[in-house]
What we know:
Distance between the termini of chain B: 52 Å
Shape of chain A: elongated
Number of strands of chain A: 4
Order of helices and strands of chain A: HHEHEHEHEHHHHHHHHH
Shape of chain B: globular
Strand order of the largest sheet of chain A: 2-1-3-4
Number of domains of chain A: 2
Structural class of chain B: alpha/beta
Number of helices of chain B: 19
Oligomer: heterodimer
Amino acid sequence: MQRIRAMIIKELLATVRDPRARLTLILPPLLQLVVFALATTLEVKNFDVGVLDTSGGAASVAFEERLSGSRNVGRVVRLHSADELRAAIDLQTVLAAVVIDQRFDRDVAAARPARIGVVLDGRRSNAAQIVAGYLGAIAASVGAELRPDTAPQAGPASVLRNWFNPNLEYVWFTLPSLIVIICSVSALSVTAQSVARERELGTFEQLLVSPLRTHEILIGKMVPPMLSGLFNGTLYLVAAATVYGVPFTGSLLLFYTSLVVYLLSLIGVGMLVSTLSRTQQQAFLGAFLVTVPATLLSGYAGPVDNMPAWLQTISLADPCRHYLVIVLGLFLKAMPAREVWLNTYPMVIIAAVTLSAAFWLFKAKKE
Amino acid sequence: MTDAASVSDVSKRFAKSPQAALDHVSLTVRPGEITGLVGPDGAGKTTLIRILTGLLHPDSGTVAVLGAAPGARSVDIGYMPQRFGLYEDLSVQQNLSLYAELRGLNRAERAAAFAHLLEFTDLKRFQTRLAGDLSGGMKQKLGLACALVKTPRLLLLDEPSVGVDPVSRRELWAMVQGLLGSGIAVLWATAYLDEAERCARVFLLSEGKIVFAGPPAELAKSCEGRIIRLTGFAGSRRDLLVRALDQPEVADGTIQGDAVRLLLRKAGVPPDFAKIGAGTALRSEPAEARFEDGFIDLLGGGPPGTSALAQDYAKVPAQTGPAILAAHLTKRFGSFTAADDINLDIRRGEIMGLLGPNGAGKSTTFKMMCGLLTPSSGTSAVGGHSFAGGAAAVRARLGYMAQKFSLYGDLSVAQNLAFFAGIYGIRRDRQQARIDALVHIFALERYLADNAATLPLGYKQRLALACAVIHEPPVLFLDEATSGVDPINRREFWCHIMGLVARGVTVLVTTHFMDEAEYCDRIALIYRARQIATGTPDELKRLASGDADMTMEDAFIALIAKADAAREAKAA
Lengths: 367, 572
């Protein structure tokens, strides 16, 4: 016990006193708390729309007014010719352009179905789709106002209700997910450096000739990433609930239990990278090599269900994937213990496999 | 003749460093001779060379290189940085081509230049080998070849011989000497004082100041008549040396074969021989002064002999079996045999030296003996316990100190000591007392809160020794533990080791300093993976040539030449 204690103290001191390690521990989580939460959103707000109006009647003016009144639309740019429209889309001054031709007002007046054209910037396909939806909604409501007689019968056929996130707040998804991402980045990078740093600095052999046993060395090296992961998890939990108002509906005990398992599986992967690396630089690149696919396969960047089947199978080996389900569940829908366990045990397996592989490799690669 | 380079009154201070790296230094390098820039690590040698190349600018003072500002005539300067400046992922040939390109050598001249250099460095067989796969000695030669790819007018060599064995060092020296005829000026930086002795002129740097400038013999001359050689004394040479060093009349002392060599503070005033228990048969004769004597004298003499570390060190109980044992140790890496049937039987209280050229299998043997490598066959044991079984318990009985002073640079001195006390299982209530005692012995009080990485080299070495002996191990493994350290600190280090050995500690040591080999009771010479000779220093000297008066370095080289000759005879 005394040896493990000395090892843990040393590892903590080495991590905290190394200016580089200190930076990787503190800066990225804080930076990403701000940047990710505000910047990575799929909502489209404040987009600019061009209008090429060759009709100029009352109906088209009403449409334009509604457009500029919408809270999602930033600026309405008036366009005067087809060439101007082309240029505006081409130079990305507008994301979409609405074309209202001469027949529009006539059709509205004559109670015929009236049409507007929409040109979208397909280079930003996702945003364009969302904008098309907005514009469709605006057109429908303008139509209902201008010709109430032709509008669908009062009382819509279906009422939308979003469970778990009634207002579809995007931060409700982003912030819990960020716990997964931040923990993986910090735990992997801190662990990956640990053995590689000793190897590079020449202290590794000093450890190996000491009475320390392999498991004592590895346990000592697991403590700093574990603590930093728990710290980051707590930081995000608190920030999400207080600053960003994301409800945490599940059990804190389940949150921390599954977080520990998640961190163990990450540490196992990081330790593998570290034992395989000869220098800190190799370890850094190795950690990068693992972190990026782990993030992409987690379901944060795009739903796992959208991936091809073989990639979905591979993603089962990604601890981030399992923990993302747990975190979102615990935040938004009070996920019960049974469900949490169903998503935790794959991480237990990953941790067991990677940690024993790291242990074995460490022993084998001593020489 | 005009100087190839001249530096006058140059000072340089680095930010964050309390001490000036160079403090009003003046020096000249003349064509056609080797100028030695001598001093321990951290004395300012590299800083001065980098100023000459134009890589660094001095804070004050003037510098002229080949009659121009530094950096202006870089085409005519050959520069071999520490670690040889090679691209390890390029082959020998590609390294040469790259340097030819950089130095602007005509394509037409290249073929002839390469052929000459490959011949000269004996690297012809290895043209396609990656530089990273060369042995230390070969890297050094390739580094030199790259510096010479276009015949320079000034050759700057930054510690070309550090970590290189005596055979390779001698070859390199001969190669450089061969260049002098064409009027090249050479500046040779080194920490080895025996190399300084062979330079035409020497500038001795210590803590950024020139403490001596002139022909090396001049410095030695200051000690003339003050060197005595003692033989025929009673008891062991180490005990006599320790007692002699404690006497106020003695400035410095070393062991030389069966003799003890002393530098007296005043000519003709030897210590009271009866007081140091030298016995009645003692013979004292004058001996020749050397450059190193002058240097030590200049620094005010060496440390006293008695080690405070040894005084309260747990006495190692007598034991019947060997303290360290190597039986038929063999290590194979694939088809390559790195160590072949090594047998060593080291008794309690004995210092065993492991010597050999780079890449000969010395490190492999050392690592197997302290449990860092598992032998392919054979066994190694410490205190009668093999590493194969409960290795952790065996490891608890040994202390280990490596050349890079494997300390945690980001941890403070106190934290390093606490860590080693913890992992070696010293009881919590005793830890602080043990740490306090070591801090006092090694005078580390001033640095307790400082990061280990920022310590001066001599203190780093003291801290490393303190950490290695914190648990009072009965066995010590020292792997080039004094490399780059100044001679005073090296002597202090050896006084501690001699003191520990007197308490029954057993020591296995590797070193490239041949004078350190003299402290050993026995030496095993490893060459081409085999143990080619084992015996006392004098036995090895006799084995080499029948003459016990030769230096250890000469004996080393002669024995290796003998082994080569025997192998060739067998092959023929």
